[in-house]
Amino acid sequence: MQKKKILATLFLPLLLASFLQSQSLGDLAKKEKARRAALKGKHATVVTEADLAKVKRQPAVESRIQEQTAAERAAQAGQAEETAAGAEEAKAAAEGEKPAEETPPGETPAISEKDTQKKQAELADIAQQKAELVDLLTLKMNTLYQEFYGLDNLKSREMIQLQISDTYDKLLKAETESAKARKDLEDFLAQTKKDSVPAIWIK
Q: Are 53 and 151 in contact (CB under 8 A)?
């Protein structure tokens, strides 16, 4: 008799807990069914990790690329304006000057000190602009590569890859032009130094 009481004492809480749990599960199932019925017919938008990455990273890519592209365009526009202005000044000077005396074959025509300084300044300015354009395109390439490896979306990677290819072509062209401008300046300085050496008179 005592064993039956002990067994009843042990199993009674278990039976009560099982009964309450079944009721709780039943209530939860009813609530979930009601919630799904309320949401039926509504369109649910699924947000993926790729969408979150695109929302977080894409504005930074576009803003940096737009700033660099604007700076690149401004540098190229300023270079074109200065080149056109230099051509007009040279044309006006050529029209206003009187015909110079013919220089004997094999001799370089004499250039005044003012013209030499002006030519040197123009060559130095062109060389500096070309070098700055190379630095700008190099910075843009580095930024594009960082954004490319930081993106998970394949479509966004393809767009960045196209921009990398276009920027690389521009960078190669800018490096060639920069090297030529630097060589022109160095050759002009060497020629100017050579012409400025005083002649040695032998008695």
A: yes
DSSP, res 97: S
Beta-carbon count within 10 A of 143 CB: 20
CA atoms of 154 and 172, how far apart (whole Å) = 27
* Alpha helices in 40-153, H assignment, sequence order: 49-96, 113-150
CA distance 116 to 138: 33
Q: What is the CATH number of domain 68-94+115-196?
A: 1.10.287
- Is pTM beyond 0.70? Reply is no
Chain centroid to Cα 57, Å, comes to 14
| Alpha carbons 83 and 96: distance in angstroms, whole number | 20
How far is Cα 30 from Cα 33, in angstroms, rounded to an integer? 5
pLDDT tens-digit profile of 47-80? 455 654 554 454 444 555 566 666 677 666 666 6
